[in-house]
């Protein structure tokens, strides 16, 4: 195999260089550059430019008006390319060979010398400069400075070689200026320094000079920005000579601090300048030293790239999160914000100290002001006129005001229990309509509109009444009156603060229901969320008070629920705990999907609003009122109002926010545009290093370019679901969903599919003795949906469980998109052609073709017979929906919709449990800050259980469909802990509980890696778990006893007693038990959190203890003295990666990579109770650093990847006398630094490799000979 068969399809990662060339944005990521056309809003091209180096700089050169010359450099390499219009056949042309220099390149400068159009000055890291003619491919001149030191940055000033001056940032925290073309007779000697600029307390990272303003600016490790004003003796010189530079005077005019971390780069414009830093912030400064804007949108870590558009209207930033963002800048003018006081008329006939008590916004123009005297005023902002709407002593001193969603009606509540609804007239000449009803013996505590005609009123003792506002038509066309009708009475559960604070209606999925709102979701002042069901045709008179169908007690803490709404099938709630949560109503049950926290310190969320495909969060950050964009991750508005304990209102119109609030008895109104206007050019990947990446699924959309669904876990505490999709002749990375909820970094991923239940059987082929594996799908995925249970683990000893469903929506691009029947490399094998009665080496060595074609291949397609699961198993299992189309984006593929529905199921902490017998206030959870989950693997019990193995033909007969349904929703999860404990858990989807099955300290050191492996025999299979640690051993554990014990418990608890064939039921239960093991009835310990929320504050009442679905309360036994099946010495130190591959009925290959830079392959023979190593080969110098990923593609081909940024293909040769050897077949440099993991996936005739670390890349490996023989 040659290197051409290992093809890089896409690379996403930190962007280290950025430039603007007319209407094109050019950025460097790894060794590639990408060209994006702003006008066409599309990525035009992407191409690998450098060899074994990352792009660190892009310098725009001469232009003929159509094409532009560009010099791209990084490390010790430089190359010249030509950027052409998109109409050309090739819009990126490489004009020169890669120039390899002897030192690191800090800056380049296109020279404008007459008669020389091909020269570029190059500044090197040891304070020297070379003149490179890229056309003739020669270095014509070399200059060195007398200050011989290492540079951290450099910047050229001047246009020609004779006038060129280098401003160099030295390791001594100084800037030295020296002329490149010296007039000294010793032209080849060192050049003396002209000027030295001092003042920084740290190394200097960037220097820029503005020739028109004659200002020099530098940024440093000390977080400061220094700006010097230069004065030339002969006035303003655009291209001063070295003599002019020797006589220049300079003064430090600005010393600025605006970043909270190191400042990386600075760019100077005519009216402002910009700086970016390690705090992922872009600051826009005026030349007077004021901060005009602070742009915060990048995830997590540094902004590396900075560029200003030619018209200076936009600033572009590119960060370590892989995103490119365009920010609108307004120069010296800050974003317009107007604040004024509204003078409210007072009722002089009553108390002369009358004051505003409540303010609300009915719509963007109309403000409602309720006075303490009981007067209600409406104020038109556009006309600046007050109208007295109501004057009634009933509302004196106390009132509740609730604007209607129709923006013309308002509801009022009084101390005496009166509710009045007022419909305001559109003009002063029209009559105001109103209706009232006395509802309660006490005061009205709260009012909440469900829609434009239904209102929920809350009174004393937890009584809530659902009211309907109706109109009664008169004889005239425009004559009508308002009336109020009672429809339902609801009762809140007993609590300290027993009244509603927010509510919404949820439509019924039953189309025959006559009432339009079949469910009502309420949030109360006690922080709980309740679901009520409405009976068809009932009312207050015919039905007793309604009790909640289910309640989530104190889910938003003790400060109360502030917001409830229903949108696109999902219920959203928010509270003063800093979370907004998403719920789903299914079968009369309100199931929480997950919770989302905005930023640290933003604890008071009061309202959510969807605006232009963006989710806006209104709330209070300390004493500030804040409007936050969730999708753009930025603040849109902030007003210092004194905090949230006041009456206020806010409306949004045409990107203008109007905020009105009370403070010290005065009404203030603030109008503000969005503080930042951000356009997302390239979406973000992660805010920190990727710890693990897995290819979840590969799908086809009718072409030969499949869609790759990938899951990534990162140190930024998030998990991303995204796709590599082919758009406009390029593979691009697009995120779909971000899963949040981990307290610390996420290090490990494990997938367990509902539809991974497979079965292998054997049959003789013709008259030969060869055996062939056949795979039958018992439970294929339905339609085009991909369903997964995802387990994530990381710091703080935390494991989370998620339910994912990937849906392909019809569009012009994905009209024919369907999920294919494919096989993960982890369980892929090909046709076997060897006699199991003889040694595998004799057969493999005798035939080269056989050597390349040992394994198992799938037989069948996605249309094979299957047992479909009923929809009832989705009870309490719903999902939040996200797609990868961002708001304010210039991405061209927004019509492509790949939707991820996800739900957080449970959270578990190693070694800890929350005992539900205690009251929620006394529950304590001590987290171990040191223990980390290093690795996870998970498998469905239905995959590991032997009960289905020899009954494939009868799976459609009872009781197998029921058994399959129940066993497919229970999973075995193995975890490697940094505390030296290898643990095995069971997870039940229905009860959302974790339970410990076994744990052992056998390794006596940090456990690094775990893996599940199923080996298939003729009449059964063996399930193994493999674990590795820092001592270099691979330890094998047999899972069959645990699996059988768990399967027996599941079937005995859930398989119906009234099953039509009780004998078969008992048979299944007995077959689930391990040999010679009796059923135990001990209390099962360490039960994990049930239905736990992502914030770890799950407050459930004690009624869940009687849940019939709680499997893990009896009949299970923890294995504390678990003994391994075998142990194998593979490496001298830690083992970071494992992969196994079955090559015959009794033999399999095991590959591993370790901290000793070695790759090891062992041939193992397995039986029921024994494991024997037949042969072993170890390549000790396989890599120059730790090996972090290995994959066996076939019995003859191995792929490994390492921190040395190389992916290597190894041929496995089988020699006589049970010997093996590894031969390097191909080696490729990868742009992903600090590689942490590799995932492989077989699709058609190719294997796709996904490599994660400081970035993410996708490779395609094609070799029919090695894959198929």
Largest sheet: 5 strands, antiparallel
The rough form would be described as flat
Approximately how much helix is present in the residues? under 10%
Low-confidence stretches: 510-516, 758-785, 811-879, 883-887, 913-925, 950-959, 1072-1109
If you had to describe this structure to a student in words, what would you say it looks like?
By secondary structure, the protein is mainly beta. The protein contains eight helices and 89 strands. The strands form 22 sheets. Strands 6, 7, 8, 9 and 10 form a five-stranded antiparallel sheet that branches. A five-stranded antiparallel sheet has the order 62-61-60-59-68, with no helix packed on it. It has a five-stranded antiparallel sheet with strand order 63-66-67-71-70, with no helix packed on it. Strand 66 (786-794) and strand 67 form a beta hairpin. Helix 6 runs antiparallel to helix 7. The chain is flat. The model is unreliable at 510-516, 758-785, 811-879, 883-887, 913-925, 950-959 and 1072-1109 (pLDDT under 50).
